[in-house]
Amino acid sequence: PHVPPTLLPRKEGIRLKRSLLIKPMMNEYYPTVTHGDGIYLFDNTGKKYIDGCSGAVTASIGHTNPEIIAAMYEQANKVSFVYRSQFTSEPAEELANKLNSLLNAKEDYWSFFVNSGSEAVETAMKIAIQHWQEKGNYRKNKILSRWISYHGITIGALSLSGHVKRRERFVHILEDYPVVSPVYCYRCPFNQKYPDCQLSCANDLETAIERAGADQIAAFIAEPIVGAAGGAITPPDGYYQKIREICDRHHILFIADEVMTGLGRTGKMFGLDHWGVRADIMALGKGVSAGYTPIAAALASEKVMEPILNGSNSIMSGHTLSANPQSTATALAVINFIEKSKLVENVQENGEYLLQKLQALAANSQIIGDVRGKGLMIGIEFVSDVKTKQPFSSGVQITKKIVDQARDKGLLVYPASAGKEGAQGDAVIISPPFIITKQEIDDLVAVLKETIEAVQNELVG
Ligand code: PMP
To answer: Which residues form the signal peptide (predicted)?
Structure first.
């Protein structure tokens, strides 16, 4: 018989399940997944889970899609790996052209393929710096970023990340730190209200540029909608138009970290589409192959590439598995499936439906402070007092409580918080696969409601 995981003593759990796999928390229970099917995952006790967050906002078309499996098999039968310094391959070339056509921009965008979002950000940083070097400017090598942000776990990408918890152990070896104000209307750092604020948070980029000196700055990086560090924190209208204008005026490149928002997640192909703005360089990850294989990409506009093409003619970066045919063919199949099945439209429509249901849930809850996001990327922030927005104290570990108890009830949600729990807000992201139906959204919200009510009763009675 199935034993609910929280009933297993944690230490007992690990003794029974001991393996040498390093897990995020070694003494905690993690179900062992055996297989997936669409929006569902199953573990080795036979328990079924609704994948309410696509893993880490990644499995955007759901699990074990037969068309993707067929495409992967077909490519594996041809060739899985060739080294990028010796060969290119048809799927790699085709994928680069496909991403460019999805952008539908005035100028072409070139793609550099890597294996994780963090590497895509690292590559974006290097392309930005190299762009200025090739123009003979060796001073422009600083990259500005915001607090309450996450750009990756490698030292360069973590240096840019405004994520206190992930930084703190490595602060002494990080190269840099964020200097620009977060964009966070629910807890405005300037204590203002939109639109009276006239976008003080965007103007803060200009202050940061003036402080550091535009002649030292290669680029500014931002997530269109903040993911892991804050739970789908969504900038107001006009924000990115202003950011774009400030970057242009100061001759600074704009890097969009679309690792989480990229390829349909927010109801548009790219997150920045909501603001009608294009970045100079983009990082893509997660959704590129929907988790079927590791692949990510840094995209750079013709304008960014031009001095490089006319100069050293080479991007000084790369990994052994960069642009391998297996991963690029898989990503192509995923994108083709998204387009063919009109999934971005589905995200838009069902995202609205999900948002309304979660707003209704919030209206009757004593611990939901804010519901926000776009498409199927909705954040829920928990507070101990909805009127004062007072966070829970860190000992409560509210995000963990919600995530664990939802999982025990058969629903996966994604924890998002930039600080130590309680210090900078506690949130989860609800981000199911794009193929979810309205009926399945009802099921998802029912389990979430039950979970939040149980936690609320435990905490505030
Ligand atoms: N940027 C953003 C916006 C992300 O959400 C993530 C992952 N959560 C990363 C970068 C890093 O990607 P990866 O975990 O694939 O290295």
So the answer is: none
